[in-house]
Design goal:
Layout lengths: L3 H25 L3 H27 L16
Helix pairs in contact: 1-2
Length: about 70
Amino acid sequence: MLQDKEIVNDYLTGINASLTGYAAVITETNHPDLRQTIIELRNQDDVRQRHLYEYALEHQFYTPAAPAPGDIIH
């Protein structure tokens, strides 16, 4: 049986792949209404991804990479 950490990480991986896919589709979509619908779907997934990312951090399921030298941390 999958553990919570595995489920969260799999879901994060899937959402991240979807966000990448949306970018490609948006740039190639000519119909304005369809393009707007895809942008809205992408935005919803972006919010979902952020919530899940914060959940993973909170439960120590995910550790982000260290900032690169010179990066500004907010």
